[in-house]
Amino acid sequence: MFLMASTLQVDLAFTPASSFGAVTPSFKVLFGEPVERERYSPPAAMSLLDYGWLYALHARSSIQRGKVWQAEYMIGMVRDQVLAAACVRFGLPWREARGMDRLPAQEKHRLEAALVRSLEPVELRRALKAVTDCLVDEIEHADPALARRIEPALRELGVGKTGHR
Fold first, then answer.
1. Does residue 60 contact residue 158 with C-beta atoms inside 8 Å?
2. Cα(first)–Cα(last) distance of the chain, in Å?
3. Is pLDDT of 163 > 60?
4. How far apart are CA 105 and CA 149, in angstroms?
5. 84-138 pLDDT, tens per residue?
6. Beta partners for 145?
7. Per-position DSSP letters for 63-106, written without gaps between them
8. Domains in the chain, please, with CATH?
9. pTM metric for this prediction
């Protein structure tokens, strides 16, 4: 990768001819002869959400211990996992936030509340509750039975919804 003075980024990649081909729908051939390759499948949503509850637990502990920067980081990690899983659910690119801006407005709107606006403990708790609610909603899309089981545990942490839809 090269970063030009004009901020243009130039990426170069090399691969053997036997491996030159599309693995994602966004692959565009400009020149050369691609070979047929097995398409890359997006991950299961739960593989992206698996750590969400753990990050939420760490965020709560960080708030209680006065580690406000760590709490903010962990809340962001939960939010990133939820956004990535939503991208998978809507068939959008999930890596590196590439599809997040193309999510439906209501999906993005519900996660706006999960943005941390200050490092005050009350604000961190508010954002943690909001992101945990979004996590439960996204788990519900991926695995309704798991959502029913995990929601009470998240509520016990003091961060979950007050009622399940």
1. yes
2. 47
3. no
4. 28
5. 999 999 999 888 878 999 999 999 999 999 999 999 999 999 999 999 999 999 9
6. none
7. HHTT-HHHHHHHHHHHHHHHHHHHHHHTT---GGGTTGGGS-HH
8. 45-156 (1.20.120.330)
9. 0.77
